[in-house]
Amino acid sequence: MEQYFQKEIETAPAEELKKLQSEKLVKQVKRVYENVPYYRKKMEEKGVTPDDIKSVDDLYKLPFLSKKDLRDAYPTGLLGVPQSECVRIHSTSGTTGKRVVAFYTQHDVDLWEDCCARAIVAAGGTKDDVCQVAYGFGLFTGGAGLNGGSHKVGCLTVPISSGNTDRQIMFIQDLKATILCCTPSYAAYLSERFKEEGYGPEDIPLKAGIFGAEAWSEEMRQDIEKNLGIKAYDIYGLTELSGPGVAFECSAQDGMHINEDHFIAEIIDPDTEEVLPEGSQGELVFTAVDKEAFPMIRYRTRDICKLTRGKCSCGRTFIKMAKPMGRSDDMLIVRGVNVFPSQIETVLLNNGYAANYQIIVDRENNTDSLDVNVEMTPEMFTDNVGEIEERQKKLVADMHAMLGIKVKISLVAPKTIERSEGKAVRVIDKRKI
Ligand code: DLL
User: What is the pTM of this model?
Assistant: First the structure.
């Protein structure tokens, strides 16, 4: 039977949600206009006042916030309350420039933990579960967010943080952990280590995993599910909006429900900034209508995905976002062609490889080169050169079919590519150095 953490809101009719969002939006815009001079100036430049915002339908009138705004206003220029009302910060490195520093009031922390609790319950979690939180603790939001959510659900919480894989395995086995929270790349590494230690899926007490913080493919989900003997659920979020739990997967496992009572989602064309109709692929933009300390209005995430509203078998009415293909700033442009690392991963997993690979982009004689180093699995490892060449050829052909460009593939021995305990670093772009 489907369980909910907050059934009334999670299954509210769409019109009711829209009404709630509209009421909250009107108040939030007024509050931000009055308390955040940086955003008020942006509104003035666009010629909008709080009186112009009467419902969600007026959202398009408001100015966007981008990473550049966060940098310009660093560290406290976007605070929506006096600093003395804040109880915590978290921070993320971002790809360029200054770190993002996000502030939280106690109210913000409570709502965030509720969102994470919804994710854990949607993955089947109850107070009888043992939840091992193997996301990093500290400035990163993964550990703190899922830890708080797990407490709210009443699980026995194991705040182990990332790393020390032997200890992870020992606690999972000795404490009979049933839910594992970590990045998908770390989950894949754990499954590899379990296998080496001689544990098959039937020996591992885990039943569910809550994996996010980086793009991962459907094929990788199937691998992790099979190797650990669990259901693997996706979870999405970003520091600017609180952390994990902005959206989460349910038993249907086909997209993540956005916590729409707190976040209004839009999809825009990243170049023209035009709002696109539901179902279009584009950049995800969020307006946080409840956040006090760090109120984000029309924040451009750079994540590329699609939104769909429909009837979900779980009964939730929250709109769903598809797995993000990656950030628009992760997208590589190689010889003029757009390449997402997730497309490369799909080809590899479809060919029986694990997600242990590294993408190296370089430029020689004014031409871009795209090399992918791929680990063979222990089962396929061989020193027969002919066999390796055949495998490489097959991958080159499949990559060409997927991407439309020639990729150089080098198959390497098992365990020669460094594993990650947090977000995996898969791309080395030497062109920027
Ligand atoms: O990664 C928050 C988080 C922690 C989410 C734990 C899920 C689990 P940041 O470090 O600020 O926050 O990075 C946010 O990570 O804009 C996406 O590009 C990417 N991302 C997060 N979740 C997913 C996901 C945390 N499920 C950035 N799929 C976001 C794909 C994801 N990308």
Answer: 0.93
CA of residue 91 to ligand 1 center, whole Å: 13
Residue of 116, 236, 342 to mutate, ligand 1, most atoms within 8 A of C-beta? 236
Residue ending a domain, among 272, 296, 325, is 325
pLDDT in tens, 229-247: 999 999 999 999 999 999 9
Find out whether the beta carbon of 293 lies less than 6 Å from any atom of ligand 1. Answer: no
Q: For 326-379, what is each residue's pLDDT tens digit? A: 777 778 889 888 898 889 999 999 999 999 999 999 998 889 999 999 999 999
User: Do 154 and 248 fall within a single domain?
Assistant: yes
**Do 91 and 206 share a domain, yes or no?**
yes
Q: Are residues 180 and 151 in the same domain?
A: yes
In eight-state DSSP terms, residue 322 is P
* 313 and 345 part of one domain: no
Q: How far is CA 106 from CA 68, 88, 112, in A?
A: 27, 8, 10
CA dist 259 and 262 (Å) reads 6
State how far Cα 131 lies from the chain centre: 19
Does any ligand 1 atom lie closer than 6 A to the CB of residue 330? no
DSSP-assigned beta bridge partners for residue 210: 181, 233
